[in-house]
Amino acid sequence: MSSRRTYHHGDLRQAVLTAALDVIATEGPSALSLRDLARRAGVSHAAPAHHFKDRAGLLTAVATEGFDLLAQALGEAKDLKDAGVRYVRFATEHPAHFQVMFQPDLHRPDDPELLAAKERAGDRLRAGVAGVSADGRGPDPRLAGVAAWSLAHGFATLLLSHNLAGPVGDRDPEEVFRTLAGLLFAAGGPQAPGE
Hints:
Elements: E1 6-7, E2 10-11, H1 12-27, H2 34-41, H3 47-52, H4 55-75, H5 80-93, H6 95-101, H7 112-132, H8 141-160, H9 165-168, H10 173-186
Antiparallel strand pairs: 1-2
Helix pairs in contact: 1-2, 1-6, 4-5, 4-6, 4-7, 5-6, 5-8, 5-10, 7-8
């Protein structure tokens, strides 16, 4: 991570990131303005540019932080199904990060810190998939990874965009996801470890 300076009111970099996450969660990434974030943090309009240079730099930092948080969440998974549940949990607990992470037109997709964070998260997902096809008879690990990611990401995206209000209702989304993953595995798909 880059070095962070602390200002008289605290850590300006983190204050701007926190304010940005609030704006993204309530108004979407298009509402972000460094000038507005500086006003919210009570600093000059040039202060956020010191840390992020511009809006794309700020959104790159948001995406990088998001992938680091996702890698941490996936690293604690006990099997592939649990990794999917943790993915959905991450999305619901960090919706602003989730909105930015998968929109490369918002940030700098070639940023070295972002690429490293994405690789860490990808490694965690691949580790979960490796257990599914460890015997050599299972599906191609890359395709199994795409399938697992598609199920978890699709469910999380539909959940966050309120497209699952009817089917999910007031049930716990994590339990609904576990049921969906079980249906997929029971329908002849790959068996998750321990099933």
